[in-house]
Amino acid sequence: MESRFDIRRAMRQRRRSLSPRERARAGRELARRLVRSSLFQRARRISCFLAADGEIDTSAVIAAAWRAGKQVYLPVLAPFGGARLWFLSYRPDSPMTRNRFGIPEPRLRGNARLAAAQLDLVLTPLVAFDAAGNRLGMGGGYYDRTFAFLHRRLGWQRPRLVGLAYSFQQVERLPGEAWDVPLWGAATERGLSRFNQR
Fold this sequence. Notes:
Elements: H1 4-16, H2 20-34, H3 38-42, E1 45-47, H4 59-67, E2 71-77, E3 85-89, E4 96-98, E5 104-106, E6 113-114, E7 121-124, E8 128-129, E9 135-136, H5 142-146, E10 160-164, E11 185-188, E12 191-194
Parallel strand pairs: 1-2, 1-7, 7-10, 10-11
Antiparallel strand pairs: 2-3, 3-6, 4-5, 8-9, 11-12
Helix pairs in contact: 2-4
């Protein structure tokens, strides 16, 4: 089995090799399939992310959520408390700033954040995933730390964590760690898959 490092390097290189047109086309197809799902239709508070580093384009998913009257949130690097995420409301006119990785995020104003447990659906970035719901991220552990509370819930109903990716990012098997928070499912340009552990 390849190491997490090798998988991460190969997948990042492969998705970066896609043209902006290919990324946008895949993102539109992903959105078309995801928004028809009952999972998306029932969710009121949705966290998504702005694509970076060759990730699948999320703009069509976000636009569809706005059109459906859903509340959209973006992850923001917590300014204190370790490598965790906060979730701030995101609208077309939201004032934005760049975090330490250069990724745009809503500017924090007052206590406008939403607790992770209050989200219905969390659309997560990833580098690779497998059919058991294992997710390989960029290595910072932000999502695993933020959603670690899900390990303590049996049969948790929300939030549902769904990885957004290109279909080629699915691998046969990922080496896991005890602290990894599994995905409920994954959405690609080919459709939405639910994993059977939740």
